[in-house]
Design goal:
By secondary structure, this protein is α/β, with parallel strands linked by helices. It has 5 helices and 6 strands, in the order βαβαβαβαβαβ. Bound molecules: NADP nicotinamide-adenine-dinucleotide phosphate. The site of NADP nicotinamide-adenine-dinucleotide phosphate has 24 residues, from loops.
Amino acid sequence: MALALTFSTGKAQLDDLIRELQLQHLRGGGARLISAHQANLEAVDDIDRLFSEIRQAHGKRPDVLVANAGYAKVIPNIADIPLEEFDRAMAVNLRATFLLVKLALPAMVEQGWGRIVFVSSIAAEGGGINGCHYAASKAGMNGMMRNLATKLGRHGITVNSLAPAMIGATGLIPDESILKGTPGDVVNIPVGRLGTPQECANVIEMICTTGYLTGQNILLTGGLK
Ligand SMILES: NC(=O)c1ccc[n+]([C@@H]2O[C@H](COP(=O)([O-])OP(=O)(O)OC[C@H]3O[C@@H](n4cnc5c(N)ncnc54)[C@H](OP(=O)(O)O)[C@@H]3O)[C@@H](O)[C@H]2O)c1
């Protein structure tokens, strides 16, 4: 397996992750080749350059696309959401996802196999702690996912989304203290704790290894609605 990972501003965190993955490989698992690529997904040119770099580093385009990068500045009330924040959420979460799929698809269609996974959010279903700008961008991703799934199945390509909520140890939710008094407060989560990035990865792995699953948005919320 080979991995092409992206970052926008968090090079240090990505370097840490790559070191961890390289250690895993030395112990007999994990990815053989890992490349890192800087890209601001708000910039169309950066997305084009990203695909050229991936082709150079790996000699091919990706078989599996996980559109995980997301912009989620928390502004709960519409009255406080400036137009620029609405536009940025749409550009990073929805427009970039559209462009990533467009660039990844030709190679997947040609080889008759591909996996596309969008990282959406409980916000797309009306839940979560953020405002309607973020919810609209994630709901747009779900609509795009369902449309693409019906069109791409015959090419051996599945398209699904993961909709997490209250995942700790992330930029959005470093720990549970920032959720106190919000709808995402741990006291409101039926399983009584935050989710983990590893649990998100578990679901993405299941999606990628289950070719009969397509057009689905899988909620990973600890029972939170
Ligand atoms: N944490 C949760 O509870 C939760 C819940 C629902 C959905 N999600 C979704 O999960 C995904 C991952 O978020 P996270 O929770 O892991 O938060 P995070 O740690 O803040 O990760 C966000 C990621 O998006 C990247 N990103 C942001 N703006 C970007 C841009 N303009 N261009 C390229 N990359 C950009 C960031 O890159 P840099 O760090 O390099 O800048 C970072 O890797 C997002 O799509 C988010 O909406 C998370």
